[in-house]
């Protein structure tokens, strides 16, 4: 595994113990305080930092420090210019900044490098990492991939028991309590033929990157969600699902990545009845879980300002 820019202990001080230019020598080179050197390095692109590890042993140690990687990630996502943000699609990624600066002349996309093939599905993203699934029957495995520096984790064991199984639901996120990345997969038995008694059987499995096996856990409390990929927010994965037999026909399934337990999160009280609401979906905006749907002729977006608190739902957009 490569260094993971998780958010745990990101407040730890990053110290460059020796100045790059010694002020006590008799040369005329300018002196940069070590603290300033660290701040400069923290604002450079990840690919440049990989090259700078060859400058000296001190810089290699500094740049390889997990705390440095964590702080570098937080600074990158806070950059209002979006210079470090990329739009990932299939086997390549695009600089997001180019979409806003010159949408008629998009930058050439970067292809993912270091992968065995280019037929991977993106299951999710978290803290700058992508979770990729190789559906080929001979593979049927999942990896974590860092598109900024083209490094990947070791592959997981095979996800599905056999090729006739499907994967109607999945999610990828970060367990900040245990400093681990996890992927959840719901797999469904497609059966060898329509008379197979096990057709439709569901298994819910979870894999912790760095371990050597999947674990079977409690099934989702509701039928397979509407959206395939869960949205990661505040240490949880979230899906919209049907809730049959209740006045409110939709509910958000929340999965706690630390406790590995589920709970229901209710939709905003003022959303219209399901008969007037197009199938809802979830997204994440500024680290807030958002609910999106079409109400007759209007696009509506609600944001949960405090995760898990139903009263904190706030309507952001309601426009034709």
From TrEMBL:
This is F-box/kelch-repeat protein at3g23880-like protein. CDD domains: F-box_AtFBW1-like. Residues 26-72 form the F-box domain. InterPro entries: F-box-assoc_dom_typ1, F-box-assoc_interact_dom, F-box-like_dom_sf, F-box_dom, SCF_F-box_component. Pfam families: F-box, FBA_1. PANTHER family: BNACNNG10540D PROTEIN (PTHR31672), F-BOX PROTEIN CPR30-LIKE (PTHR31672:SF13). It comes from Trifolium pratense (Red clover).
């Amino acid at each position: 595994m490569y260094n993971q820019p998780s958010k745990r202990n990101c407040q730890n001080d990053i110290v460059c113990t020796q100045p790059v230019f010694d002020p006590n020598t008799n040369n005329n080179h300018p002196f940069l305080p070590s603290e300033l050197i660290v701040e400069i390095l923290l604002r450079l692109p990840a690919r440049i930092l990989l090259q700078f590890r060859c400058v000296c042993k001190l810089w290699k140690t500094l740049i390889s420090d997990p705390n440095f990687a964590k702080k570098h990630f937080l600074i990158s996502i806070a950059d209002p210019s979006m210079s470090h943000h990329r739009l990932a699609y299939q086997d390549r990624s695009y600089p997001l900044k180019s979409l806003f600066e010159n949408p008629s002349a998009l930058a050439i996309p970067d292809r993912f490098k270091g992968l065995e093939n280019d037929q991977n599905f993106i299951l999710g993203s978290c803290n700058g990492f992508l979770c990729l699934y190789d559906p080929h029957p001979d593979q049927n495995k999942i990896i974590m991939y860092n598109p900024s520096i083209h490094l990947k984790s070791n592959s997981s064991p095979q996800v599905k028991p056999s090729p006739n199984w499907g994967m109607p639901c999945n999610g990828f996120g970060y367990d900040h309590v245990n400093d681990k990345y996890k992927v959840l997969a719901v797999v469904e038995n497609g059966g060898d033929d329509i008379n197979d008694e096990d057709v439709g059987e569901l298994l819910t499995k979870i894999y912790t990157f760095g371990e050597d096996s999947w674990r079977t856990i409690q099934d989702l409390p509701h039928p397979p969600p509407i959206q395939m990929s869960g949205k990661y927010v505040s240490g949880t994965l979230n899906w919209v699902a049907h809730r049959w037999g209740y006045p409110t026909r939709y509910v958000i399934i929340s999965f706690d990545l630390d406790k590995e337990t589920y709970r229901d999160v209710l939709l905003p009280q003022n959303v219209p009845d399901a008969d007037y609401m197009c199938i809802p979906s979830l997204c994440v905006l500024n680290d807030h879980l958002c609910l999106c749907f079409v109400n007759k002729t209007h696009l509506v977006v609600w944001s949960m300002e405090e995760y898990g608190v139903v009263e904190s739902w706030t309507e952001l957009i309601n426009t034709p």
